[in-house]
Batch of 2 targets.
Target 1
Amino acid sequence: MIISPDTQREQRIPPGQSQTVKWPVLDANGTPPIDLSKWRLDIFGLVEREVSLSWEDFLALPRAQVFADFHCVTRWSRLDNTWGGVLVSTLMELAGGVKPEAKFVSALGYDYGWTTNLPIADFLSADALVAIDHDGIALAPEHGGPARLIVPQLYAWKSAKWLGGLELLAEDKPGFWERNGYHNHGDPWKEERFGY
């Protein structure tokens, strides 16, 4: 199991946050219907080889667990989460590696064209993964199932629900919330909530 570095801080609740044991459900447009027989995870852009995985392909990849905290920009933090899925590093190996000019990633969701952007360094962190279960239970659709990105060191909106694609880019490409007032980076320890 990979232990996220943030869980080893003396103070685990970032500034302006309150701890919750619940897991509130928040999204922009509601839960999209996803047919697993048609589900794909496309990895494209500045990788050595583009990859398109079916659900069966994805389930056949090596699995990992990440123990991490989860911080929502709406001021709640849920500690001690165990995420199961496929590490981002495994997916990038499958794609033959990241090209040197890749500086950003755009994560694409199945929910009506929703995207979010991340710097490549955050995306490639050792504790980043595409999760399919949470605390040993398959991710419920309202929490981003069947698969969502998890990047523990950033606010939760950067951990795109209903993941369908990862585009590696040379230039930054702000996503839905970033274009609508949220901070472009989203570090909870710096309270990077809003961009204005």
Target 2
Amino acid sequence: MNHPPAAGALATARLDLLPVEVGHAAEMAVVLSDPALHTFIGGAPDTPDSLRARYERLTAGSPDPAVTWLNWVVLLRAENCLTGTVQATVTGSLAEVAWVVGTPWQGRGIAVEAARGLVGRLAATGEVRTVIAHVHPDHHASAAVARAAGLAPTGVLHDGELRWSRSLGA
């Protein structure tokens, strides 16, 4: 029987990835407040209240029992502050991952370190066999994160984004 991976805390060299809690919403609304973060994904920054409601839905879990939502906030230990998020939606042996780091912390390798930590956690479960991400073709920084996490472009476009993939073995 397959057991979905858990979103327990995990640590990397500089980061703690902490399971999302509703109480993170106020700080994360500030972290994610730059409209430039939505250049490639669309939409606008969440207000603290809308992010709180979103985190309430996320922490309640997927309404589909075949899907597991794993969501972490990224804590930069040296500065004791939240800097972004990583997430995975797991369906069977497939995990779709995503990441975002607030503008003030970009360019410091935080997204790479967090994404590697996330993919490492998924690989360690032995349940996830394939990791995918969708990256806008013009979002070169996000493509670099995907590549650093071991994903490779597939050439497949999905809703205007390039699918990246990594096999975690059989």
